[in-house]
Design a protein that fits this description.
Blueprint lengths: L4 E5 L3 E5 L2 H8 L1 H4 L21 H21 L6 H12 L9 H7 L6 H15 L5 H8 L6 H6 L5 H14 L8 H6 L1 E4 L2 E5 L3 H19 L2 H22 L8 H8 L6 H4 L3 H6 L3 H11 L5 H11 L5 E5 L5 H13 L7 H4 E8 L10 E3 L5 E3 H4 L3 H5 L4 E8 L8
Parallel strand pairs: 4-7
Antiparallel strand pairs: 1-2, 3-4, 5-9, 6-9, 7-8
Helix pairs in contact: 1-4, 3-4, 3-9, 4-7, 5-12, 6-7, 9-11, 12-17
């Protein structure tokens, strides 16, 4: 069987699956599940074109990894065939642990279990099935491989993950400010002192990359309407879990019901051998089928939230520069009480929170620029554009969202 395949990608053109191992990974049910999980969750409530999947993104990141490794080879860095394949495998699998509506799911059904941890559990399970063929890829993913720049290409502020999702999310949302010119950026990559660096002539490309990331966060990932929809999904899942724990009967697919009824920790994935298979059974369809089923549930809070979300009757949301005052929250609670929301139901229809945008985390993970003389400088020090330094500061915004004009069902 010919396992060297070519895939037509709308962002990059043709993407090659260049080895038997990569084909076997793409063909595996763990990876095929990513076809059924949208990359941007609920973002299509704002940008109708944002329907691309984590399957698309993972293939795109694998493609960029291959392009970057070829550039490094052309610049004289020895990268063996097993290393080349392992780096592509590591980035291909980097999102395996994402559930449907990942961050919402983590906050409600898998509290304190990060998707990166589940990704590693799944990679190790795959490695056992494949008799150790992923040993090197797992080392690169974890950062234990001696050549550290491989891990930086998988996970850092200049990794192939970010390069693809900025380009891809920009393409599918139509937010052109997020386009980063990945081809030029990749051609500027180099390795110095075992670190992934950028040549000085790529300085403007990095500046564009950081600005694009900041803009995409405010315009897409932290868009206030998306935050409102996510808050509604979080609240209805919280309500469903509360009802389930109290003994109420709730429609759900078997795999989704398992996570809805139980609180699992990361250690449970080792204790319960079939738990990983249940997790791999979860995708966007489980959540939407449940939301559709719950809209006729006898509980008025659950049925109202589900109906509102399905019909895009979203909570009103307002951003603030400081935490909302108690007077403001009391006024909104008063409005909801007048609309028939009982005090014990209030938390489901009035949500406050905060969000941050940190375009460049200099202290945690610096981007190094290789100057013409060979010196390595932080991008904020190498650039003469003052806004780069400004991007190192955390911008924090507070928000309140509430059900305006709500009418409880039932």
């Amino acid at each position: 069987m010919n396992k060297r395949k070519i895939i037509n990608d709308p962002v990059y053109g043709f993407i090659s699956i260049s080895s038997d191992l990569l084909y076997d990974l793409v063909d595996h049910p763990y990876f095929q599940r990513l076809r059924r999980i949208k990359q941007l969750g609920l973002a299509d409530v704002v940008y109708p074109g944002a329907l691309h999947t984590r399957f698309h993104h993972a293939l795109g990141a694998m493609h960029l990894m291959g392009q970057a490794l070829k550039v490094l080879q052309q610049k004289g860095h020895a990268i063996s065939e097993p290393e080349f394949e392992a780096a592509q495998a590591a980035i291909l699998l980097h999102d395996l642990g994402h559930g449907p509506f990942s961050h919402v799911l983590e906050s409600v059904l898998l509290q304190h279990v990060a998707h990166e941890s589940i990704t590693l559990v799944m990679m190790k399970a795959l490695n056992r099935q494949m008799e150790g063929r992923l040993d090197l890829a797992i080392q690169m993913f974890e950062g234990t491989y001696p050549r550290k720049f491989f891990h930086q290409m998988v996970s850092s502020q200049l990794d192939m993950d970010r390069m693809d999702y900025l380009n891809r999310d920009s393409f599918y949302t139509g937010v052109i400010e997020g386009s980063i010119g990945a081809d030029r950026l990749i051609k500027m990559l180099d390795v110095s002192e075992d670190q992934l660096v950028v040549e000085e002539k790529g300085l403007l490309s990095i500046e564009n990359f950081l600005h694009a990331r900041r803009l995409m966060y405010w315009q897409v990932y932290l868009h206030k309407t998306l935050l409102s929809a996510q808050a509604m999904l979080t609240q209805l899942l919280q309500r469903a879990r509360e009802l389930s724990e109290s003994g109420a009967t709730l429609f759900a697919t078997p795999d989704f019901a398992r996570f809805l009824h139980n609180n699992y920790s990361l250690e449970d994935f080792d204790i319960h051998q079939d738990l990983l298979d249940s997790f791999n059974g979860l995708d966007d369809n489980d959540v939407w089928a449940s939301v559709k089923g719950w809209r006729t549930h006898s509980d008025p809070v659950l049925s109202t939230l589900c109906t509102m979300l399905l019909n895009r009757q979203l909570f009103k949301i307002t951003f603030y520069d400081a935490p909302p005052s108690e007077a403001l929250l009391a006024d909104l609670r008063g409005q909801l009480l007048e609309a028939g929301i009982a005090e014990e139901q209030m938390d489901y229809f009035l949500v406050s929170g905060e969000t941050t945008n940190w375009a460049y985390a200099k202290e945690l993970d610096p981007i190094r620029v290789k100057m013409k003389g060979g010196a390595l400088l932080d991008i904020a020090d190498a650039s003469d554009i003052p806004t780069i330094k400004a991007l190192t500061k955390i911008v924090r915004k507070y928000y309140v969202c509430w059900a305006k004009n709500v009418s409880l069902r039932g």
